[in-house]
Amino acid sequence: MVSKEIRDIIENYLEAYNSFEIEGMVNLLHKDIIFRNISYGETTTETRGIQAFRELAEQSSTMFSSRRQIITEYSVIDDKVEVGIDYEGILAVDLPNGLKIGEKLQLNGKSKFEIEEGKISLIEDYS
């Protein structure tokens, strides 16, 4: 798969994510998708398979009234991609860490993607 096709898949995924289009996200995923969220070097969330990913995506979507991931850097090696991400979200719920409804959450991080059979087979979000 060429770099342009891979980039298009990832950009389409992020567009669906930013628009809260769960079905659009899931349609781009391999049936055996692995998702991990890694914060300060520790895995805080991990799912395996489309159904588990869908459930997490649906749950996560209720936490924000708006959200946006923007690619700041992009590199491809074979079918592996690493992107720098600027994240911004407006909370729709109060969080246990003290952040309140309506507050803006801003993070810088990176995401790693792997592509298998034309679908995203791995997403690792690092913050």
From TrEMBL:
InterPro entries: NTF2-like_dom_sf, SnoaL-like. Residues 10-121 form the SnoaL-like domain. This is SnoaL-like domain-containing protein.
